[in-house]
Amino acid sequence: MPSKSSIEELFLPSTPGKFKDKSHHRQPHRSTSTLFLWALFLVALTAAYLSFQSFVDSGSKYFRIHWDNHVRSSAQIRRSNGFSVLVTGAAGFVGSHVSLALKKRGDGVVGLDNFNNYYDPALKKSRRDLLTAHGVFIVEGDVNDAKLLAKLFDLVQFSHVMHLAAQAGVRYAMENPHSYIHSNIAGLVTLLEASKSANPQPSVVWASSSSVYGLNEKSPFSESDRTDKPASLYAATKKAGEEITHTYNHIYGLSITGLRFFTVYGPWGRPDMAYFSFTRNILQGKPITVYRGKNHADLARDFTYIDDIVKGCIGSLDTAKKSTGSGGKKRGPAQFRIFNLGNTSPVTVPMMVGILEKQLKVKAKKNLVDMPGNGDVPFTHANISYARSEFGYNPTTDLQTGLKKFVKWYLSYYGYNHAKSV
Ligand SMILES: O=C(O)[C@H]1O[C@H](OP(=O)(O)OP(=O)(O)OC[C@H]2O[C@@H](n3ccc(=O)[nH]c3=O)[C@H](O)[C@@H]2O)[C@H](O)[C@@H](O)[C@@H]1O
């Protein structure tokens, strides 16, 4: 048996100068096996990663196809000469009502909404559930997402865009001014960019606001009146929207209809609005703040019921002419319209509170406060003759009737005890 040293000698390299000491000499054995194990481990890891990746890929591909199918089926038209409409802000108050009305008459509707938390997103989700039950799919996304818009226009040849997504609310603009720029200016431009590039270009109908009349004192308000004295940043962004849409009409041939809504109210409404928050406070026994104008004059609004507004939106869509551009280029002059959609009979805020008290059978605890300089205007009053002449717009619901319907909905949705948060 050879001695230990002779065995070691057997492994001595023949070439002098390449000699390594004992410990190094044994290393190749250990490192070969370790390397082998490492290689095995790496191979296994790579295989696991690749199969996981393909699982994720096929999963996301499945969801993509699934998503595409939802969009396409929601956009399907079920009446002759029907529309395919992209409704932005579809989980919002006006958006949900308009989407439902279009779907019910056989138009294809795809909704888009970012479900932000300006007010309780649970209410928006309940509206979404209602729309889902009627076959309207709402894509969760922001109008500022150009890629998403391009994808939607890629999937569906929308004949119309009903653009209702916006940062609403007059007084909140002092708290969060940038949200108005983000949604009402940047979001509008992103949407118009997508619309002008689409083939075919859709006709665009969008929500402006009665607040553009600002400090206008001429009554009733007509579309030809001056609108260059907005009283709030909100109003200024809506006014800017009217100018911005005009440029897209002028340069790219987009058919544009702007709708100046007058204090829209009704079932499934917005919790930030006075009639809604007053209802909640009255039922909870909490005080409400009622603003007064100069010399203690009551403030007044041309409150307009949601069903009348829906008729105005649909009338606008039905009479919207086609856009004239293609390939992002104007091919001829295109339609540009702005309509007042009001009720033509202003009611003071204390009278509105009186109607609520009667409906709720509870007396309100009113704090009368001088109107703070927060963007409010003393009164609004719509002249609607233009909308009447163009598509027979004829609001038929007075505030008493409309608030009765609202209160009925409110109680069925929240109950007397407000089980859901508002
Ligand atoms: O028509 C419009 O252009 C606008 O209508 C409403 O704005 P506003 O008329 O101010 O509606 P509310 O916030 O419901 O206020 C209604 C009236 O109640 C008054 N008010 C509001 C809140 C409050 O605590 N107390 C109070 O007396 C306001 O001063 C106003 O006169 C919407 O909130 C805007 O999004 C919309 O663009």
In summary, what is this structure?
With 422 residues, the chain is α/β, with parallel strands linked by helices. The N terminus is likely disordered.
Description:
- This protein is an alpha/beta fold.
- It has a domain at 69-264 and 305-343 and 380-396: NAD(P)-binding Rossmann-like Domain (Rossmann fold, 3-Layer(aba) Sandwich).
- The chain is built from twelve helices and 13 strands.
- It has helices spanning 4-10, 22-74, 93-104, 121-133, 146-155, 177-197, 233-252, 274-284, 306-319, 349-360, 385-391, 399-414; strands at residues 84-88, 108-113, 137-140, 160-163, 203-209, 256-261, 264-265, 287-292, 300-301, 304-305, 336-341, 347-348, 365-370.
- α5 runs parallel beside α6.
- It is globular.
- The site of uridine-5'-diphosphate-glucuronic acid has 18 residues, from β8.
- Uridine-5'-diphosphate-glucuronic acid binds at residues 168-170, 209-211, 261-263, 273-274, 289-291, 299, 301, 349, 376.
